[in-house]
Amino acid sequence: MTRIGIIGGSGLEALLKGTRIVRVGTPYGPAPWISVGSVGKEEVAFLPRHGPKHDLPPHKVNYRANIHALKQIGVERIIATNAVGGINSEYNPGDLSIPDDIIDMTKSRTTTFFDSSPVTHIDFSQPYCPELRKALLDSSKGSKVKMWNTSVLAATEGPRYETPAEIRMLEKLGGDLVGMTGAPETFLARELEMCYATLCFISNRAAGKQAKLSAVEVMDIGKRLMPEIVAIIRKTAESIPVKRTCNCGRATHEAQV
Ligand SMILES: [Zn+2]
Questions:
Q1: How far is the CA of 182 from the centre of ligand 1 (A)?
Q2: pTM (two decimals)
Q3: C-alpha of residue 250 to centroid of ligand 1, in Å
């Protein structure tokens, strides 16, 4: 049974041993190829968010197909990774964070599976699974990299970077981090009663806080931090109890009108 799914960019395949490729169709279109392999005793799935060739920009990712495909192969817990900018001036490029809240500022994405009757309103008082967040935080103890254990992620549309005025606005709204892929993944996962948490790596200071932003800088920091990210996710996959004790598996209870 593949209970744990990972969504992220290239480099994370290194986690898996004895990998096989799984193709899954969904009512929302095909998902990218999913790699399934072992991490210790655990069978784990890896889904490349932007496709295997990284040719899907953030606003064109088929988020519903990705989450639905992982659900179909039995995934109950999703560990995501996101490259983000650090709005909070205490955060430095090269730091990690596991956000506990999110502001969705995306514009063109379908953010729900519940498009028709029965009208369904899911609770997002805790936007990320507390159990999975704790497992990631526990697994990062002893890491050489600075970890911020609570933060608010502001999700923007992309693919362009934000303007300085947009960053000042997000900062006033309480955003600590900014990235283009945080939403709607966490919402869709909860709607399908899956646990979801994300390990964010801070790859720049946000617009207006450094001279300019570059995708090359983001890739370089991602590569530098990848061994640390892989180690934290491996430890989490190996240590998290099989049985879930959070409420994510009952998300649709008492949610329908
Ligand atoms: Zn959960």
A1: 17
A2: 0.96
A3: 9
